[in-house]
């Protein structure tokens, strides 16, 4: 019995854990590549587009796991998750022949992209909302899967054919930038802003209360990972 338990633990470490570590290293490499491409895209926009006074595009390296692209009033936040994830057995990916052929293909590094209003962070408007634009999942073979708002819809639906390269990463970055710029902000209704507390005034929350309009998710709720491993 003890020998059997030892063999199970040994198998987990040699296969499952080793695969996760490999995926994590690949995830970090891809994120470094994404940073480089984001900088190039920002530089190209600034060099080739006549930006009017008060409009600017900036890249900021926020941390090891996060960078930002500021597009005037919009802030697009790119980040990676430090854990490796998998999907529910009922998810489209889990039922694909590509995943079934090799169990180690079902472990993914996760890249997320959120859209905030730049002023929400600048003025510490803690009640303002950020919106998930897209999630990119990549396994150890650099095969990928994308979930996102409508601008990302139907991009590369077959994971068996989806191999991440520089052009696809660039397209991904441009697509989330497009999504952030396309949807405008709407003000809260009059009644909800009718009364504010002194605390809200002192914290400058009275400057907030706006929301983005027009976001529609392309992927179903089944796209949520089962667990973080």
Describe the structure.
By secondary structure, the protein is of the alpha+beta class. It has five helices and ten strands, in the order αββββαβαββαβαββ. The strands form three sheets. The chain has a six-stranded antiparallel sheet. Strands 4-10 form a two-stranded antiparallel ribbon. α1 (2-48) packs across α4. The chain is elongated and about 70 Å long. The two termini are 27 Å apart.
Furnish the topology, listing elements before pairings.
Blueprint lengths: L1 H47 L8 E7 L2 E6 L2 E7 L4 E2 L10 H5 L7 E9 H5 L8 E8 L5 E5 L17 H17 L2 E2 L11 H5 L8 E2 L14 E2 L1
Helix pairs in contact: 1-4
Keywords:
alpha+beta; 5 helices; disordered C terminus; 6-stranded antiparallel β-sheet
């Amino acid at each position: 019995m003890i020998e059997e338990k030892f063999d199970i633990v040994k198998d987990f470490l040699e296969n499952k854990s080793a695969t996760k570590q490999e995926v994590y290293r690949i995830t970090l490499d891809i994120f470094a590549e994404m940073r480089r491409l984001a900088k190039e895209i920002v530089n190209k926009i600034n060099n080739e587009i006549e930006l009017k006074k008060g409009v600017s595009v900036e890249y900021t390296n926020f941390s090891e796991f996060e960078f930002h692209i500021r597009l005037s009033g919009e802030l697009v936040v790119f980040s990676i998750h430090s854990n490796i994830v998998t999907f529910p057995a009922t998810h489209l990916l889990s039922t694909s022949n590509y995943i079934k052929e090799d169990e180690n293909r079902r472990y993914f590094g996760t890249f997320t992209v959120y859209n905030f209003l730049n002023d929400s962070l600048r003025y510490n408007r803690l009640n303002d909302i950020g919106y998930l634009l897209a999630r990119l999942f990549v396994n150890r073979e650099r095969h990928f899967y994308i979930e996102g708002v409508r601008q990302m819809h139907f991009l590369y639906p077959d994971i068996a054919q989806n191999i991440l390269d520089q052009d696809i990463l660039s397209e991904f970055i441009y697509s989330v930038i497009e999504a952030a710029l396309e949807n405008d902000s709407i003000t809260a209704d009059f009644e909800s802003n009718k009364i504010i507390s002194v605390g809200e005034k002192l914290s400058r929350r009275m400057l907030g209360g706006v929301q983005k309009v027009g976001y529609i998710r392309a992927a179903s709720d089944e796209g949520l990972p089962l667990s973080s491993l």
